Structure formats: C-alpha cells, structure tokens
Amino acid sequence: MEIYELTTDVLIVGGGLAGTNAAIAAAEKGAKVVVVDKGKIERSGDIGGGVDHFLAYLNTDPEWDTKEAFLRYVEKVGKGTGYSEIIESVYCAELGDAIDRMARIGNPLAQPDGTFYRTRSMGQPGTYWINFNGKRLKPCLGKAVRKLGCKVLDKVMMLSLFTRDGAVVGGIGFHIRSGHFFVIHAKATIVSTGNTNRLYENPRINPFNTWLCPFDTGDGQVMAFRAGAALSNMEYMRMTLLPKGFAAPGFNALTGMGGRFVNTLGEYYMEKKHPMGNRAPRYDVVFYTLEEIRSGRGPIYMDCRHLADQDLVHLKATLGYDKDTLPDYLEQRGEDLRQRPVEITVSEGMQAGPTEVTGSGIKIDRDSAATIPGLYACGDAADHNRCV
After folding, report:
1. Residues 162 and 60 reside in one and the same domain
2. Of 101, 279, 287, 339, which sits most exposed with the smallest number of CB within 10 A?
3. Which residues are CB-neighbours of 386 under 8 A, at least 6 positions away?
C-alpha cells in the first residue's frame, strides 16, 4: 500500500453526469481539476449505459415553452417543494450552455436533421422532454474531461472529506484494486455522487438489478453530513413502474410516446383517476397503480397497441438508449408491443426528490454551495427544496 498526495483547485467526488459536466465547466475556466470515481467516468452513474431524454424548455411557445412557464410547472408538480430562485439560478441559467456542451462533445440533443424530437409526460404542460440518442453520452463526457487535462482517479472510493477551521479542504480515498490511498487537498470540493439506491429490497430480489445505478449508495451525502453540511428532505422516496422482473428505465419513453396503463380487467384506470391520464406526474401514476394492485385489479400492463407504426419503430429504438438489455428482455420473452400489452410492476423505493424537478440531499444555495464553506454539490446528490 502506498499513499499519494495531490493538490488541486477543484476536487469532484463522483464522475457521473453531473460530475463530468462540472469538471468540464471548471477546467474550461482554467481551474485545475481532480475527478474521483469508484467506477470509470466513461460508464459510471445513472446514465452509464445511456440515456434517451433531456428535460428542457426551448422558447418555442409562449404558453408553456418559456422559463416562466417551466418554473410554474416546477412549482405545481413539486407541490411547493421546489425553490424557484435556486432552480432558476442552477438550472435555467445553465440550460443553454448545457445543450451547447452536449453538441460540442459529440452527443447532440438534435436529430440528424437538426430538429428536436420532443415528447410529453409526468405532468408536463407541453413537450419538455427532448428525446435523443444518448447511448454514448458518458463516453463523450469522459473523453472531454480527460482531453481538458483533468486528473481522473478511476476506481478510487472516497472515504471522508477533510475540514480545517470549519471549511472543507479536500478528502481521502483508496483505490479499490490496489489499496493505495489518495490524499487530495482542494480549494473547493464538489460532491456529485447521485441519489441513494438499494435502500429497499427490489421486486426482482437481485440487489444489483435496480431501476437506477446500484452503486449510488449515498456515500457523498454521508461524507458531507459528517463534515458538517446540512442535508434536507432525505425522507423523500421516489418510485416508478418497470417491466415485470426487470429493472430498466422506460417509463418516460413509453408514456411520452402515448402508452396507456391498463389493469387486468382491461380498464384504462389512469384515464379515470387523473385529469392528465397516463401522462400524470410519476408519483400519481405509481400511487394509483399501487391502489389497483391492492384492490385486486392487478397485474398491471402498459398498452402500446394503438400507436402508429412509425411511433413504435421509434419507441423500440429509443428503449435501448438507456439500457441495451431492455429490448433484449422484450425479445427474449417474446413481447411484441404491437400485439399485446407488456406486464409492469412497481419498483423499489429510492431516496430522491419527489419529482425530476425537485431535489433531495446536500442542501445548496443558488451558487450550488453547501452550508459549510469549501463544499458544493450538484446533480441528484444535491437538494434545492424549500425546507431546511
């Protein structure tokens, strides 16, 4: 075992989507950056296998596709939990740069013809989801981080943050293969370790067959708390609907393209239960689905038989952008979305904000700063809710 010491301007703990974007932004401003990830930044985090959707307003419609309309949506769907001032500063102010950055690193949001393919789901007033091929987004981000000269420590597990005079000044970790320790001194430390999964046993029993990355286990939140940072709304739990026996993202794609939830009696229950029907907020769909199951009207299915052929072709392709194994799963089970509904079930719970637009985790302000000097947080490890 050896001990290595490094000194940097910015230490980023977690090299997922948020962490790699933070690294690129800091390096492009001239900062010296160290990124630490217990996996490898080219395929780590919740979108390590790919992603098919990006939340954005594009100013195409004055009624719903503007910053003001988006913030009203955030307030409504978050039931008052979203802090608009922070969302405006952290998300809205950075949205244009984020879209440009994705194109710049080689994984644009636009289709080959330059247009955006947009869908609507989860309580949205319009088509906020940009549907795109993000299969290679993480490799592109990883390549960009390395090209900018950031020091990347793959397969290094962070153990603790250092504090001095009430401020975070770096941290310590070890290489999971060699056992070597890394002591990293930093002017600023960013925690971007994702949400907290594997809190509950999942319906598929296998602890690694989770909806989102099974290696996102709350490390960053724990380290921040031990260093003295405030956490908030950690009691929030998010659930979704998944194919029976298999954990793979797909809820947004299926509902966004027009899929319908149906119970074993053939009733399209969401269309009776909620004014937005199948495109209701995720938490409402989960709640009413659990109600159907508890009332003996399960199993529950997703029905896509009514979709146009071109939509089904697009849907089949995009389902593999998040996980290649989802189309494989459907094929091996002989599932054909054109012929019959596919059985789905409720996922395990995980610690995260109640919606995609409200957070849970390390308490941040409009500059993404935590409540202890020297510490910042971003992505699903950060919280922007009203409560403290």
Report:
1. yes
2. 339
3. 80, 81, 82, 83
For 278, the token pair is 């199948």
How distant, in Å, are the alpha carbons of 7, 166, 184 from that of 170? Answer: 9, 12, 5
DSSP state of 278: G
The answer on 187 and 86 residing in a single domain is: yes
> Is the C-alpha dihedral spanning 364, 214, 103, 125 positive or negative?
negative
Q: Give DSSP secondary structure letters for 123-146.
A: T-SS--EEE---TTHHHHHHHHHH
Which region holds residue 233: left if phi is over 0, alpha if psi is between -120 and 50, else beta?
A: left
Residue 82 DSSP class: B
Is residue 202 one of the residues assigned to a domain? no
The answer to whether position 23 is within a domain reads: yes
Domain of residue 40: give its range: 3-196+351-383
CATH code, 134: 3.50.50.60
Are 253 and 53 contacting, i.e. CB atoms less than 8 angstroms apart? yes
Tens of pLDDT, residues 96-130:
999 999 999 999 999 999 999 999 999 999 999 99
CATH code of the domain in which 328 resides: 3.90.700.10
Closest Cα partner for 52 from 267, 345, 378, 320? 320
Number of structural domains (the chain) is: 2
DSSP lists the bridge partners of residue 156 as 175
Q: Say what the pLDDT of residue 247 is.
A: 87
Please tell me whether residues 171 and 38 are part of one structural domain.
yes
Indicate whether 107 belongs to any domain.
yes
Mean pLDDT by 10 residues, the chain (388 residues): 96 98 98 98 94 96 97 89 88 96 96 95 96 96 98 98 98 97 98 93 89 93 97 90 88 94 98 97 96 97 96 90 87 92 94 83 95 96 71
| Other CB atoms within 10 Å distance of the CB of residue 30 | 7
Residues 6+ positions from 329 with CB-CB distance below 8 Å: 243, 246, 248, 335
Nearest 5°: CA angle at 380, between 166 and 370?
A: 20
Q: Does residue 185 share a domain with residue 76? A: yes
Burial 222-232 (b: 16+ CB within 10 A, else e): ebbbebbbebb
DSSP secondary structure string, 144-198?
HHHHTT-EEEETEEEEEEEEETTEEEEEEEEETTT--EEEEEEEEEEE----B--
Whether 337 and 357 map to the same domain: the answer is no
